[in-house]
Backbone:
């Protein structure tokens, strides 16, 4: 099958899958937000920001390392090395995830006391740590399937995971919701963790079946540890900084609302309204862009390995042009139908104004996703992360400065400034790469 045909077939499979999953997620999140209230949504958002930081440590760029190295070995005709690459990457998954578990266990009491105003105990974070090795290993195996252009298997894994998540979260919420905020968070976390573990078992089984095809090829016993570390160490370190800053940023937002005169409950509710309800609606169509963006990474990695610079420029121009057209259409539609979408999803008009205010940012957000993916494929992942760190440092400064004085208006200004800054530096970096 021709590469371009394979690319679009994989893109269609992942797009359909992702749209299904996003629909499930957005309607389920709508159900959750109505069931538990905006305060609980805000609190859960803060817990998840810490969870994401722990996941970042446990991943440390291992998905990117697996995808890039496997794609490069295929481009060089070293098919027999693929199993060895995956095995080495899985080994690093174990190391990274146990480091993340240790840090989460150590600092969760401080996080609960200082950042969450003792709204919950450290127990939810202890439960979260159980899932980290499984998430890390699943990400590694997903990177393998992306590199070999087999998207159907990880797609089925994602569908299974989301269905299980809905089932388990609904079950736990129905039993534990009357017990208070902490048990609401535990219910949501348990549903996530159980689905992640089952998801790993499923994708690992698929990988074991798939790798039998590779047995007929011999390995040249290359040392891949150095190549893996060359990607994971810089990506991991910058990811730690980025994710840590992102967590601080999310925590500072409700603190800023409190300084602006809101109670703790009102601050969490305001945070949940924008970050937990308006932003998911704005980013929902970006699913399609993210699908093709992830597929671009191995494609551009192979172009780069073969020094096919004309193809890199041509494909970059086409990708950005298509993304621009798509994102402008989506921006207009979301702005025009914000009220109807809010009523359908949240049975409320409380988020309409924020959806309309944020809708003009959609082209910037969507194109930035594509530019980042192209840069990663061209081995500029560290540059992408540095840009994100600059973005986060600027956002933290603006949140600290503006939200206590201007409240939600200050938060919205920060979102706009942050997205525009990130886009400017990312686009400038891509332009520099294409002209050298």
Residues:
């Amino acid at each position: 099958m021709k590469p371009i045909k394979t690319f679009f077939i994989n893109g269609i499979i992942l797009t359909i899958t992702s749209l299904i999953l996003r629909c499930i997620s957005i309607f389920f999140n709508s159900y959750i937000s109505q069931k538990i209230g905006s305060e609980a949504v805000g609190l859960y958002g803060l817990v998840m920001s810490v969870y994401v930081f722990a996941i970042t440590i446990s991943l440390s760029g291992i998905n990117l390392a697996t995808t890039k190295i496997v794609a490069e070995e295929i481009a060089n005709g070293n098919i027999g090395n693929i199993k060895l690459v995956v095995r080495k990457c899985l080994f690093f998954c174990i190391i990274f995830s146990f480091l993340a578990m240790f840090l989460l266990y150590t600092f969760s009491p401080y996080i609960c006391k200082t950042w969450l105003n003792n709204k919950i105990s450290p127990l939810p974070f202890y439960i979260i740590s159980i899932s980290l090795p499984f998430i890390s290993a699943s990400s590694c195996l997903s990177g393998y399937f992306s590199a070999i252009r087999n998207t159907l298997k990880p797609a089925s894994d994602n569908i299974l995971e989301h269905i299980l998540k809905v089932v388990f979260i609904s079950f736990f919420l129905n039993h534990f919701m009357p017990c208070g905020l902490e048990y609401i968070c535990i219910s949501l976390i348990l549903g996530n963790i159980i689905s992640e573990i089952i998801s790993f078992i499923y994708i690992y089984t698929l990988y074991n079946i798939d790798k039998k095809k590779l047995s007929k090829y011999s390995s040249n016993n290359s040392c891949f540890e150095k190549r893996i570390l060359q990607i994971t160490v810089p990506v991991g370190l910058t990811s730690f900084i980025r994710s840590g800053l992102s967590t601080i940023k999310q925590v500072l937002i409700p603190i800023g609302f409190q300084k602006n005169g809101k109670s703790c409950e009102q601050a969490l509710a305001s945070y949940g309204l924008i970050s937990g309800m308006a932003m998911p609606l704005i980013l929902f169509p970006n699913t399609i862009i993210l699908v093709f963006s992830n597929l671009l990474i191995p494609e551009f990695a192979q172009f780069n390995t073969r020094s096919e610079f004309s193809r890199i420029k041509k494909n970059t121009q086409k990708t950005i042009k298509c993304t621009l057209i798509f994102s402008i259409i989506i921006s207009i539609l979301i702005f025009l139908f914000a009220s109807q979408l809010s009523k359908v999803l949240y049975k409320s008009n409380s988020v309409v104004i924020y959806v309309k205010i944020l809708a003009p940012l959609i082209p910037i957000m969507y194109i930035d996703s594509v530019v980042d993916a192209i840069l990663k494929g061209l081995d500029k992942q560290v540059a992408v992360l540095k840009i994100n760190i600059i973005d986060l440092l600027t956002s933290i400064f603006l949140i600290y400065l503006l939200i206590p004085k201007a409240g939600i208006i200050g938060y919205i200004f920060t979102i706009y400034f942050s997205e525009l800054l990130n886009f400017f530096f990312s686009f400038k970096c891509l332009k520099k790469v294409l002209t050298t």
Q: What stands out?
A: DSSP finds 17 helices and no strands in the chain. The longest helix spans residues 225-259. The chain has one domain: 3-435. The mean pLDDT is 81.
